[in-house]
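#lab-general

N.A. 3:47 PM
ok so I finally got the sequence cleaned up, no stray characters, all 262 residues accounted for. can someone with queue access submit it? mine expired

B.Y. 3:52 PM
send it over

N.A. 3:53 PM
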Amino acid sequence: MVNMDLIFLKNYKYFNVYISSETPEQTENRLRKVIQTSELKIYDVEYFFKECSIEKFELDERALAIVRDEEVWSFLIPSESSETENFKLFSFHFKDGLDNSGFVGWLASTIKRELGTGVFVVCGQNTRRGGIFDYWGCPVSIADDVLRLVGSLKTTWTEIENYLKLDLPTLSDLDINPTKEKEIKILGVKVWTRKSPVTIGTIGDLVNWTLARNYNTLIDPKALFDKADVEKVIIGIISDSMAIPVDEIKLKHRISYDLGVD
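B.Y. 4:20 PM
back already:
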C-alpha cells in the first residue's frame, strides 16, 4: 500500500525559495491565482509504482519519476495490471515569476478537506517552463471528484461564487477535461452521454442559470416582474425537486417525457 501522504522529489539547484509574510486570506488569494494561471495536464492512462532492488536498477523510459530509498528504486510508470494499486495522474507547470510557495500543502489540504482522500506529489524542475513542476496522483476510485474539484479551483468559477455568495451551475466533466469522450461506451455500445460543458454557454445563459439556481434568494415570488421571472422560478423548483442541473432544463422540454416529472 502506497502511503497517501505527500511524496517529494525536488531539485534545488535552480530553485527559488520565496519567503514572505502574509495573512491566511492573502495566502488563499495568491495560491488561487497560482492554480488559475498554471498549466494543467491530465493523463489518460493510470499509473502505478513499480519497485526493484537497489542492486538491480535498470532505466525504464516510460517512467515519469524515479524515487529511491535505502532498499528499492520506485518507478512511476503506466499501469500494467488492474491488480496493482493504480492512480490517476495530473500535473502542473507554473507561471514563471509567480510565488507558488505553499501550493502543494494548500491543494492537498483542500482535497483532503473536501473529499477525504490523500494524494501523492512528485516534484521535478524544468527551468524553461517556470521551474518546479508537480505530478499529482490520487486513487482511481475518486479521480473524477478530485479532477472536478481541481478544475473548479483552476477556473474563476469558485472565485465568482465566493464573491457573489451565490451558487453557479455545477461544472461538468467536460468543463474540467475537454479531452474526455462525450459518449460513455461499454463494449462499443453507448451507455450514456456526459453532461454538456457549462462554459460553452453565453453570458446571458449564465445569468439566467444563476437566477434559476438561486431563485429562492434572488426572486420574490410576491413581486414577480415578468414572464421571465416566472420561468426562472419554475426551472429552479424543477431543478431542486428533480436534481436536474438548471443548465440542462430548457423551456421547450416536455414536463413528463423529457424531465420525468409526474
